[in-house]
Amino acid sequence: MADSVISGYAIVYNSPTVIAGEWREQLAPGSLTRTLKESPDVVMILSHDIGRVLGRVSAGTLALREDRVGLYFALTVDPSTPEGQTALGTVGRQDVKGCSFGFRVRAEEWKDGGDRLPLRTITDLDLYELTLTALPAYEETSASLRASSNNDAAVRRIREAQRRRGILK
Question: What is the pTM of this model?
Fold first, then answer.
């Protein structure tokens, strides 16, 4: 496969979802700012399986950018690995087109839902993993193959991020 970059939004701000039928949950804009500055070594995996690593910020294979929409990612996939082949195939066909994430809440706000479920807004979290999944809890997340012409630009962005973090000289 000529294209080996998967990109999309792993987190979308102000996008409520129902958790376990008990409450609604959303992430506030800026809820990732601290963790991305303090602990940027996030891994991207398949279906929350830590044994199926696809990329990592410190390796330069995963680039993350917080913007007004949420958390954008660009993942350069290794097509020579079984996990890479699975990711490229399932995302390419759009069998897998969403994301999930592993995190620990640092700060949150709760609002009574009235006749609806209560709403938890996460305002600060520790992010440690992103995952490509067919069944995301947050349905507005996205993952798709990039056009081949964007590969060079994605690699340049990843290398520039590595330089800023002192990983590359």
Answer: 0.83
